[in-house]
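Hi! If you just cloned this repository, the fastest way to understand the data is to look at a raw example. We've pasted two of them here, unedited. The first protein comes first, obviously.
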Amino acid sequence: MIRGRVTDWALALVLPVLLLVAYDAWARTAGDFFFPPLSEIGATFADEWLFTRIPTDLLPSLGRMLAGFALAVGGGVALGALLGFSRMLSTALDPVLQFLRALPPPALIPVSLLVFGAGDSAKVFLIALGAVWPVLLNTVDGVRGVDRTALDMARSYRVPAHARLTRLVLPAALPRIFAGARTALGIAIILMVVSELIGADNGVGYVVQLAQRGFDIPEMWAGTLLLGLLGFGANALFVAFEKRVLHWHIATTGRASSAPRRRSRRPTPKPTEAAGARRS
């Protein structure tokens, strides 16, 4: 198993390493001011982001992103469960939800600045508003996809509504909820950067934009590299958490799709033995 994991990691790293090598070779021969070699980008990354800007820019960005993501997941699951249970409520709120869903979150930056000011509240609001929709829609689909026979049986045994929700409906909808939350995590990282482009005085997006305006190209690329590593690391942590929480679902689907058939341990009788058994 360990050898297989090492092989998978090696295969996954082949293409990124080749792309980096190809870019570095091209950048050194081209000599373009806007595309510095990897050595210069790496040196700037080590100087700026490994120590200096972590407390002043990276941690505030992560705090706002995690706060908006938590609000999106909590609000999306709560509202999605209500809409999944009640067709009447879903029909009544559908026009409003579709209107809000059609609004691009970056277009609401001026409104959020007027309502919440230039502090962290406006940025958290934008992140939560843009990331809530995958969680909400997947929760509605997951709740409506619960087996009706199991729900009817729970009602017939007079299981309370809150127990049906927490012990039957939400566990059955968890795989879809996690799928929506994983999509929402990527959206939250994108909106974290977008929210820091206007009305901000710190954050990764603010630093990248400031470097671009000041033609500090290595620092701009270093910030972009940090965002890519941040997205990769956040997705890896989320997948590990998802595997731990949904181990029952992964194990069940794995056995259902790839479990080999068990062969009988009883040996097949030879033709002579079978003939002798028939004679006796």
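Ok, and the second one:
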Amino acid sequence: MRKISILVLTLVVIAIFWYLFLKPQDYQVSFKAKALPGTVFETVKAWNKTLDSVVPVQFETLEDFSQTIVTGDSLHTYQWNITKVHDSLSQVDVNIKDKDHSLMNKIKIPFSDTDFEKGSRKTLLDFNQFLKEHLEKFKVSIVGEEELFSTFCACVPLTNEPGEKAGGIMANYTYLSSTIFENGVEPNGPPFLEVEEWDLKSNSLSYNFCFPIVRSEKLPMNPSIKYKRIFNKPALKAIYNGNYVTSDRAWYALVNYAEENNIPIEKKPIEVFFNNPNMGGNEMEWTTEVYMPIKE
């Protein structure tokens, strides 16, 4: 009995030591989100900016990333772990730690519903409402495999954050279209965007915003405009309805579709725009064809 008592006491001491000093989080909040991990990640980034946070979301993977939230005189670290349940549902576990008061939180939590716990739940309820409202503002429909179009085009190369993609389009839409019109160049279809590099780690997007044109001798020589040809190739296609700011939600849907069906792809999406964002209107009626090239 004495040996058993010593063993039990030792295990209890080890458990208490782990809980107080080794357990990575002070508190965990779990919930389900009706979205893919990529959409949850992008929504957390957008929500983070509404909190006036000076610390950007720190990306590791779409399923594992961290966020730092300033609360009063404390810094709270939110470690997001996301597991896809199926195509329209993810399990979200958020491990929360107060860097300056972690030990005291761990001591108090088993005995009372602390302000730290209440504040953490309130913060994530706010996020859930933010996510719900966001999901109501767009729609993605997977079409499947289709041939990517071929065209000659005039393009403006741009680099910015993915969330600023629409701003780049709007800033150059009139400039590029008027330059083509003023020089008597014949347009040959709706404008589109061609991604050259999509870097989640650095939160950077390099892309060309292009107008399809008929090749001629009237092409204006402008240092900010380059000319190139897009060639036919197999691709996965989706239809996106919503604001161009968040059309990358279709990218994540296509990446998920490719993974589910073992289709090798190049993560360099092409978006074809059928509405001018500068004209406003009901964003759910805006239509974008989104292509994800298949590796050959």
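That's it. A detail worth noticing about the second one: DSSP finds six helices and 13 strands in the chain.
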